[in-house]
């Protein structure tokens, strides 16, 4: 089987498995990205996310992560869930976290894709990844032609915007490689202008100061939230979609058709008062198998308390 045929079969199977896009790039060291990452880390823009400093050589070179690898197969899965149907005054959750943990959903499909390659194309060695190893997902997706990395640092597709998850297969199979597409951000600065905490700086487009990002504060930061930023959180209690919501390309977003990403009805019915009185039992029920588990019950209570204080709302939490 030649490279062209094998590549076509892989892409066709990826779409059959529910991936919106699939592209392929050569497994090689990311020279330009390595310099940018090193500079970014040296400026401590990763905050408490020390794991981003680990395994640097593997992060920038897939052949060190997967010896003998020749190709990086990048996939994208849509998670856009349309209009937020929660009560208007409820604390907000990022769109990606409404349903089942995406790590589990994508890994299961990538495993099936990997098995398909071994059964239908030939025995290969490799590994599959979903945001859980030293892999620069967006860099590989960009090189594979899935989109360009925008000024908000998210990968943007000219077809559907940016509300999608990324994953990769790194394998020792030589394939037909895709090329990068054009950057269509142009002179637009909506994401930079809209960021309330200054994580995105108009003077430094295409770079995020993660340790000032609402998503970082509400998910990654384990200690106390910073004083005086309550109003700037704009009622986000887990994650933040501001820089994506204002992006003109996301006018092209289409609702996903993946049942695993559908929110539980109980979640959509939670009022501001319900969140303020959240119990451990309710948390465990609503967020079973959810990405929100990452911040934990105490972490989510901390976030709810914090955003409630910006409006002077009463935060009378009940511990279970």
From TrEMBL:
Residues noted as binding tRNA in the record, renumbered to the chain: 222
EC code: 1.17.99.6
Biological function: Catalyzes the conversion of epoxyqueuosine (oQ) to queuosine (Q), which is a hypermodified base found in the wobble positions of tRNA(Asp), tRNA(Asn), tRNA(His) and tRNA(Tyr).
Positions that bind [4Fe-4S] cluster 2: 195, 213, 240, 243
Family: Belongs to the QueG family.
Source organism of the structure: Salibacter halophilus
Name by which UniProt lists this protein: Epoxyqueuosine reductase
Keywords from the UniProt entry: 4Fe-4S, Cobalamin, Cobalt, Cytoplasm, Iron, Iron-sulfur, Metal-binding, Oxidoreductase, Queuosine biosynthesis, tRNA processing
